[in-house]
Structure formats: C-alpha cells, structure tokens
Write a structure and sequence with these properties.
Mean pLDDT: 84
Number of strands: 10
Shape: elongated
CATH class of the largest domain: Alpha Beta
Helix content: 40-55%
Order of helices and strands: HEHEEHEEHHEHEEEHEH
Strand order of the largest sheet: 5-4-3-6-7-10
Low-confidence stretches: 1-6
Radius of gyration: 23 Å
Number of domains: 2
C-alpha cells in the first residue's frame, strides 16, 4: 500500500495541485471527448427487454420469447473497458523549456489528464518511463490511488540515463501489451532508427504521438556568441547567434527534423498531437479529440 509519508511534502503538494487542476479539465472537457475518441473493443450482450415497434427483428431473443410467451429483444452495449499505456520520454532533452514549463512538466500534466479521463471511463492505466533504457514500468490498473502513484513517479523519478531510445520503449510495450490498447507516446522524438518498432506498435495498438516542442529548438534570437550543451550527450558547441546565416542554418536543420518526424508518423498512420511548452496543451488536445471523433 502506498503511504503519503513516503512522498516529500513539496512533491505531494504539487501532485495535489495537478490532481485538482487536471480533474477539473477532465470533468468539464476531456472525459467525454476521451470516451468518444477511443472506442471500445466491440459490443457485448447487456440484457433483454420487451419488443417495441421499430426494433430490428434480427435482435429478437427467440429462446426467451418462447419461454415467456412474449417477444423480447437482445440489447448490446459497447465493450468499454480498455487499457491506456503511457510511454513517457524522460531523457535529458525533456528537462528543457525556454518559456513557461519544461517539456517533462508538460508531459506530466498531459499524462494526468489522460489518466484521469481513462479511469473516469473505467479504463486501466499503465506507465512506462524511458530514456535509452526502460527506467520504470508500472503495470496497468484502475483507480484514483493508482493514477496518483503514476503522477508521483513522473515527478519523482530520477533517470539513470540522459540518452534516448524510442526503440527500447516501443519494443517493451510490444512485449507487455497482450491485447489491443491505447498507446500514448509522449516525447520530443529526438531520436533515430525507431520506425520498425513504431510500425509494429501502430499495427497492434491505437497509437498516438504527443509531440513536445520548444520554440528555442526551432530558432534563436540574436544574442551574440552563446554556448549550447546537448542535454543527452553533454557535448558543447558555440553558436554565433548574431550571424543571420548561423541562425538560418539552425532553423533550417530544426525544420527539416520536424518535417521528417511528421512524415514518418503520417506514413505509419500514427496520430500526431503537437504540444508546445510556451502554449497551453488544452486546445491542441481538444482539437485532436474532436478531429478524431469526426473521422469515426
């Protein structure tokens, strides 16, 4: 059993604030949108009721009707219960945010919204934190206490590595998820050579990419000579931001990288939700849910 004493006071306060804020969003906005966007796995028998004018004769339960002497029809409901698996990137590049929040903080709030939406709809939620290794795996379960434990892990976990391997996370998900699930991948996707496992995950599961972005990873203002350190490798380079040519080259490289990610996800038919650290994540998520509902 989880004990509140195990959670530092400041961390518990932060978790509680996120719970209050995100549960409000779930109650007012996301709960119903989540239910509509992620359909159940099929339909299952619920009950029988007396036949009414207009009912499909194919739904008549002949056994019950013969036994009772009245005409009854079968009622079916959506088989709702699903599993939501959160694959969250905790590599060094996630501890970056030039405005507002770090990518890792935004990821935690999105996870909270998704997790509370899931349990409101009686779904299970699991968590997989990854760098270039599997940092933490929490099997899917239901309930508020479980979701709070996941949020605590998102904030409290100290990664062992600062590098990224999306392939490691995707292959682990393939191994542990035996039935079709909803897989939310929350990352900046600054990695290579993960197309094959992503294709395999997308074929087996309802897969969504939450693509975290920060404006300083796209372009730099003129600030003179600055020192940039790669958060994953520790390598340091000098960038002369006063040079228009240097700024243009940086922006072009960043744009090409973003286009490559978008094209890969589109080719594999993985829904992409771009989320920026300097903007609210609420509107992009609502837009995604509603677009998805229109396709259904």
């Amino acid at each position: 059993m989880e004990s509140r004493i195990m959670i530092p006071k400041e961390l518990f306060k932060k978790i509680r604030q996120i719970e209050i804020r995100t549960k409000g969003l779930v109650h007012d906005v996301f709960g119903g949108e989540y239910h509509s966007a992620f359909k159940g796995q099929g339909i299952e028998f619920s009950e029988v009721r007396p036949y009414q004018v207009g009912d499909d004769v194919r739904s008549i339960d002949w056994n019950v009707s013969a036994r009772t002497g009245e005409t009854f029809v079968k009622i079916f409901e959506e088989e709702r219960e699903q599993t939501l698996m959160l694959l969250v990137d905790v590599s060094g590049s996630e501890d970056f945010g030039s405005k507002g929040k770090f990518k890792r903080e935004v990821a935690a709030e999105i996870c909270a919204v998704a997790a509370f939406s899931a349990i409101q709809n009686n779904d299970k939620v699991g968590l997989l934190l990854f760098s270039d290794e599997i940092e933490l795996f929490v099997p899917p379960k239901k309930g508020r206490r479980h979701v709070l434990r996941l949020i605590r892990d998102l904030f409290a976990h100290e990664p062992r590595s600062r590098r990224t391997s999306l392939s490691a996370a995707l292959n682990h998900a393939l191994h542990v998820l035996r039935r079709r699930s909803i897989v939310l991948i929350i990352s900046d996707f600054l990695d290579d050579d993960y197309e094959a496992p992503l294709r395999a995950v997308a074929k087996r599961h309802d897969t969504v990419a939450i693509h975290l972005q920060d404006p300083r990873e796209e372009e730099w203002p003129s600030l003179g000579l600055i020192e940039l350190t790669d958060p994953e490798t520790g390598e340091t380079v000098l960038l002369d931001t006063s040079s228009r040519q240097a700024r243009r080259a940086f922006a072009e490289d960043a744009y090409a990288r973003q286009v490559a990610i978008e094209e890969l996800l589109r080719r594999l038919r993985v829904d992409r939700v771009p989320i920026r650290t300097d903007e609210s994540y609420v509107e992009p998520l609502i837009r995604f849910f509603r677009q998805r509902n229109r396709k259904a």
